[in-house]
Amino acid sequence: MSVSDSASRAHAQTVAKAPAQAHETAPVGPIVISRHGRPALDRRAGPRLTWRDYCDWWERYEAGGLAEGQEIPGKLQAQVADADIVLSSARLRAQQTAALAAPHLEAESDPVFNEAPLPPPRLPGLRYLPKTWNVLARAAWLNGHALDGESVMQARERAARAAARLHEASRRGKVYLAAHGWFNRMIRPELRTLGWRCVEDHGDSYWCYRVYEFRSQTRSVG
Fold first, then answer.
1. Quick check: 98 and 19 in contact, CB under 8 A?
2. Who has the most CB within 10 Å: 8, 53, 87, 155?
3. CB atoms closer than 10 angstroms to residue 66
4. Cα dihedral sign for 180, 45, 142, 60?
5. pLDDT computed for residue 89 by the predictor
6. Contact of 138 with 146, CB cutoff 8 Å
7. Torsions phi, psi of 176, nearest 5?
8. In the predicted structure, residue 218 carries a pLDDT above the cut 80
9. Does the pLDDT of residue 19 top 60, yes or no?
C-alpha cells in the first residue's frame, strides 16, 4: 500500500469517527422548563373536604385548565420566543401554558411530563381545604403511600425518561417545556446526571422557569 493510500484511508477513518464524536456532544439546547400558569380550580378555596372528596377534587384539578384573565410574564415569553421545540405534559393547564407562552409553535404533549400524583392519606372524619390536603398527600406519597397509583420509585423512573426526552429534543435546538411544580423538581437531578446545569433559576411559582445548559462531562487528566 502506498503512502498516499495510507493517508487516504487514515483520513477516511477520521471522517467516519467524526459523526460518532459529534453525536456524543450533540445536545445544543438550552432547555427551558416552566411551571404552568394559575389553574382555574383554586386550591385555597373551600369548602373543606374529606379525603375522599379530595380525590374527586384532584381529578377535576388534573382535568382543568387555566384561570382566565391572568397576565403571561413577559420574561418567560421573551425567553422562549426563539424555542425550536415546545413540549408540554398531557394536562390541559400545561398545554394552555405552552400555547400562551410560545404561540409560534404547536406543543408536543407527552404524559411522561405529567405531575406526580397526590394520593391523600385516609383520615376519616377530618376535613381540610385542598391546599392542606396537597401538603398531606405529598408527604404521605413521599413516605410510600400511593393509593394504588404511581409510586415514588415509578415517578423517579418516569422522571429519568422525561429527562432523556428533553436531552434528545435538545439535539434539534432550544427546548421549552411547560409542566408541573413537583415533577419539574424530580427532573432536575436526572438532567444533572445527563450533563445539564441550571444557569437561571426563577423559582417554582406559577409561570416561573429555569434555564439549563449542557456542560461537557469530560474530566481533566492528571
1. no
2. 87
3. 21
4. negative
5. 99
6. no
7. -120, 130
8. no
9. no
Write out the residue range of the structural domain in which residue 66 sits: 27-214
Would residue 120 count as lying in a domain? yes
Domains held by the chain: number: 1
pLDDT digits (tens, 9 = 90+) for 121-166: 999 999 999 999 999 999 999 999 999 999 999 999 999 999 999 9
Nearest-5° Cα angle at 37, 153 to 95: 70
pLDDT for the residue 16: 40
Compute the distance between CA of residue 175 and CA of residue 157 in angstroms, rounded to an integer: 21
CB-count exposure of residue 199 (10 Å: 0-12, 13-18, 19+):
exposed
pTM as predicted: 0.85
Task: Answer yes or no: is 185 within a domain.
Answer: yes
9 three-state secondary structure: helix
Please report whether residue 138 resides in a domain.
yes
Helix ranges restricted to H, the chain: 3-24, 51-63, 74-80, 92-101, 130-142, 152-169, 181-193
Q: List, in sequence order, every residue forming a beta bridge with 176; answer none if it has no partner.
A: 32, 86
